[in-house]
Amino acid sequence: MDRIKVLVVSSVVPNARGSGGELVLHRYLKSNRRIESEVVSWQRFPFRLKVIGKLRELGFQSLSRCMECLFPVFPSKKVVDDLVHSFRPDVVVTVAHGWWHIQARSVAKKFELPLISFFQDWWPDFPDVPFAFRSRVERQFRKTRADSAVAICVSDGMRRELGEPGNALVLHDAPSLTRCGDMTRDFKLPLRVAYFGNLFEYGPLIESALRALKGSERVRLEVFGASPLWTRGAEDEFRSSGFYHGFIPSNELAKSLHDFQAALVVMSFAPPHRRRMTTSFPSKLIDATQVGLPVVVWGPEYCSAVTWARQGDRALCVTDPNPSALRRTLEELATSRLKQERFGKSAREAAADEFNPDRIQEQFMDALRRAMYSRDGSDV
Known about the structure:
Layout: E1 4-8, H1 21-30, E2 35-39, H2 47-57, H3 61-70, H4 77-87, E3 91-95, H5 100-110, E4 115-119, H6 134-147, E5 150-153, H7 156-161, E6 168-170, E7 191-196, H8 203-213, E8 219-224, H9 234-240, H10 250-257, E9 262-266, H11 274-279, H12 283-290, E10 295-298, H13 304-310, E11 316-318, H14 323-334, H15 337-352, H16 357-376
Parallel strand pairs: 1-2, 1-3, 3-4, 4-5, 5-6, 7-8, 7-9, 9-10, 10-11
Helix pairs in contact: 2-3, 8-14, 12-15
């Protein structure tokens, strides 16, 4: 069977060394022999982009973001057109984050190609979008959904927020860590709990958790990630005490996590982030299940991770933002072999079923075929 040819027109591009959506696209497109892909990139930086970059350098963040909302900067149409003619793609793929999904719609329409769009985060509510422009950005966001042959939603909450469209399907992110199968972990104190992932938005919560657990004889929280948003001196303090390890690539992280007994997944309690927390889904929860770690979710009752955990009691949930509540829950887990075994089993079952990487990859291939059939006017 011929490989499916995918043209990526997206602000988020496949990147094996990236994070979030970049890694997800790489796993879907670059790690699959049944797919051949080309990525639209800058040939040269337009003058407007240089102006926006200079404004940021000078500290005019708000003005630069307003300019991007009013005048999004895209690659040359000629460059994109030439790539379409030479590569002859079967489908166009984009991520509805940033601005290039707007250009992806235009390319798909011009060349009568089916568009597949990933909806991984509620982009209109991101801090990068000034409040005055959010309704404008949301209209573009929803138009991309409407113009897509297939809209891939990262969660049920995302699909609901988009209006339960007929062209949408729910597909969780492919995991970056490799499944470990059944693992027996030692039942001992202190309970080693790993947090790995976003330390910018969730940095203050993680710092509060580290301080709340400082001195605990039952629990030891250790953190992996880059550029933590912590108070002055906190990074050096936690690194010297062995609680902070910095960023570790996925292949090394998987080995390190074998020495841990649980994973902490965090989602924001901030009211302005509510819609983002209900529509996104933490990829690190998926990764934690791949190595069989019991999952502890610290987030509001309405967030997607807690909603998932409540379905069959699949993870421990702490819905109180006070870090002392997290400490109590973790210390209780530390002394309960039954809970550790039960939630470890739940994690392994999720990794083998709902978060099975082979199953997720096949679902993505089905989405590609569905989009191609839609162009031909056929039913899947």
